[in-house]
Structure formats: structure tokens, C-alpha cells
């Protein structure tokens, strides 16, 4: 839910910018027929105007719909649905806005220079709209690997089925295993826990986000018998991008459990966001901090 809240906040900030442009364009198109010069436009210009006006109306409809949808579902505990629907409506609104802007350019250019020049100008202007707003981000999304996109989801599993255990590369004389939690949670960035053990320690390398949704996977990794039996448990937090209060609680519980069974416990400094959280909560002051997961504990 914290991730959904962040998604909603980001989308709201973006829509504030887009809606302003849509409103200005729509207001401009509304006053055009009332100008004296509009009487002299031909059928082609009138058709372009009508199509452009409709595109601006649909652009306003799509960009304003998330607010209305959110209000009517107030306290319905359906925020995730609202966010994903609003994302699709925002993309549709951008498409209609691009068409409306190109149509406005076609209308004005045709009135000044003629239909041929207007069509060529509008067509050339449509290219950067399509390239920068749609083609470039979609190509970027397609060319990035699953690891860079936050790890795509594995196939759906039956409810209640534990997440699969995947083998991880291990050095000679070591074992390793990796856990990845179920994508039915709908997370954009999955938590991955890689375990690596030597004779003196076991290192749990956390990648992604540790929050309310992903903390059960981390807890499951901590319950592994091989993890609990090692003399030293090290949490490698360097690639952990986000930790919420639930994730922090699990780290504290792991520390307490290790001390209760006589196991040494240590963490790495982590990313700047993790370092800031540990500093604010003074958690790092009560734990051994290693600069690297393989640093000697003594």
C-alpha cells in the first residue's frame, strides 16, 4: 500500500501539469467559433476544428477522470485499482492531447498558408509527439532486461503455495539459494533474497524493496535451518532500495532472534535511503556494521 501511495502521488503531480495544458487548449478552441474570422473558413477547416475540439474534450475527460473516480470510490479500500486505471486513462489523455495539439496546428497553419502546408506542418509536428511521448519510452521499456525493470513476475501460482526456491550461483565449498516472492502482490519491484554461506558466516543479500508485502519472504529466509545454524549472520543491505516500518521491524526481529540463539549478527551500511532510516531510528547504533559482507567480524 505504501508503494501504491507513492504511485498515486507521482501520478497526481504529473496530471497537474497535463491538465493545465488541456484546459488552456480547450478554452482556446471554445472561443474560436465566436471570432469574426471564423465565418470565412471553409469546410476543411471546419472539419479540422470539429475533430480537434473533440480530441481536446476527450483529453480533458481522460485526465480529469482519475479525480472523479477516486472521489466516488472514497474509502472503498480499492486504491490499487484506482491507481492502475488512472494510469491507463492518463496515457489515453496524453494521446488525445497530442492529437488536439497537432489538430490546432493544422487549423492555424491551413488558415494562414493553405491546406497543403498545414497538412505537412501538422504531420512533421506529429513525429516528435509520437517519438518522445510514446515510441521512445516504449522502446526503452522493451530493451531493458527483466532485472533492470524490477524483475518481471513469475507465472501465477495457486493461492497458498509457497514461493519457488531458485538456485543461485555459489563459489566452490559454498551453498546458495534465492527466494522471490509472488507477483500476485502486484509489486513493481520484487524483493530477492540471496543466501550465501561459508564456514564462518551466512550472508543474506537483499535486492529490491523490503516492505509490508515482501517482508514474509525475508522472514521465510531467516527461518532456514542453514541460516540459523551459522556462527555469524550478515544482512547485505547495499542493494536494498526501500525499507518501510514493517521491513525495519523484521530486521530488528532478526537481530533479536540471532542474539537469543547465540548467533553473531551484522549488517552492511546499505543504500543512502536505508542508511538514513537506520540513522533516524538509531537502529544501526545497536548493531554491528560491516563495510562489506565479507569483512572480518573481529
Features:
298 residues, alpha/beta, Transcription Regulator spoIIAA, 2 domains, 8 helices, elongated
Q: What does the largest sheet look like?
A: 7 strands, mixed
The end-to-end distance, rounded to whole angstroms, is: 41 Å
Enumerate the strands of the largest sheet in spatial order, edge to edge or round the barrel: 1-2-3-4-5-6-7
Poorly predicted spans: 150-156, 161-175, 180-189
Alpha-carbon Rg, integer: 27 Å
Annotation, overall tally of beta strands: 7
Q: How many helical elements?
A: 8
Secondary structural class: alpha/beta
- Average predicted confidence as pLDDT: 82
Proportion of β residues?
Answer: 5-15%
Our count of domains comes out at: 2
Describe, in plain words, how this protein is organized in 3D.
There is one protein chain. With 298 residues, the chain is of the alpha/beta class. The protein has two domains: 2-143; 165-289, STAS domain (Transcription Regulator spoIIAA, 2-Layer Sandwich), CATH 3.30.750.24. It is 54% helix and 14% strand. It contains eight helices and seven strands. The chain has helices at 2-31, 43-72, 79-113, 115-143, 215-222, 225-228, 245-260, 272-280; strands at 165-167, 175-180, 192-197, 202-210, 232-243, 264-267, 288-289. Strands 1-2-3-4-5-6-7 form a seven-stranded mixed beta sheet, sandwiched between helices. α1 packs parallel to α3 (79-113) and α2 packs antiparallel against α3 (79-113). The longest helix is centred in the N-terminal third of the chain and has 35 residues, at 79-113.
